[in-house]
Amino acid sequence: MTNIFKRLSVLFAFAIIACQPNAPKEEAAEGETIGNHIVVTTSLLRDMLENILPEGEYKIESLMGSGVDPHIYKPTRKDVQRLREADVVVFNGIHLEGRMGEIKDQLAKKQRVLTAGDAFNKERLINSSEFEDGQDPHFWFDLSMWIDAGAHLSEALKELYPHHSDVIAQNFEQWAVSMKYLHRDVEQILAEVPSERRVIITSHDALSYFARSFTFKVNSLQGSSTSAEFGVKDVKDMVDFIIDNNIPAIFPENITSDQALQAIVKGCEKRGYELKIADELYSDALGEAGTEAATFEGMVRANAHTIAEALK
Ligand SMILES: [Zn+2]
After folding, report:
1. Is residue 294 over pLDDT 70?
2. Structural domains of the chain in order of their starting residue, each with its CATH number
3. pTM summary value
4. Residue 279 C-alpha to ligand 1 middle, in angstroms?
């Protein structure tokens, strides 16, 4: 063998080693069949994929169930095992899964990992100092963004499952239309809330995208992550804000305790202002099975009714 051939064959061997175990596999290799077991992080993603993938053909599991807070969720050893055994793993991304960054990097070396948030450039995301990269991850409440996240994942799934690409494309189109109708319905439900009352106060800012879409303002004690602390000064500032703006109600969420909100209600009471705690909003997780909010569409509709009822 000549020197040049020796060098080339060594280089070639290195290239094979370098490409094999660590390169993320976004497409199915020729003739390769990828298994149908998909693990997603949040219940919202599970709902989306159940709509997009052909019915009965895939096993779609959500790591976090209803009412689970993704910002502080730490996977157990069993969860890590479940992720490792999956054929495809889907994350929300943009640091929603705040304590899963390391495991995500590990998984991406060996498994197919898709990220819904990769659908967006920075300009489309809302800035938030609470997160590592300075962006708010709750984009699902802007339904046009949820559609685009669905389009991004659909494209990746069509590559992975080419034999289902037509069904995935059809299902995506239908789902996207239902999301557009949902946006219109939410606008109608909220139409009875006058502009001066369009302020949503929650314990953490999950609704900034919702506010941008439906012309509301949001305010919260903890910013957009539930892992942030709040202090006496935060409560006092919030009480001032509520009284100055004559706000009738504030909203608890299904993923956080309402301890923060109770402190605000007491602060208002001391100053002779009656503030209501409205019904619970669904923020980062779906509601329990069997309830209206057990689907994404139901959850968004339930939130719209709750907000309209409390603020109209
Ligand atoms: Zn959140």
Report:
1. yes
2. 33-186 (3.40.50.1980), 190-311 (3.40.50.1980)
3. 0.88
4. 18
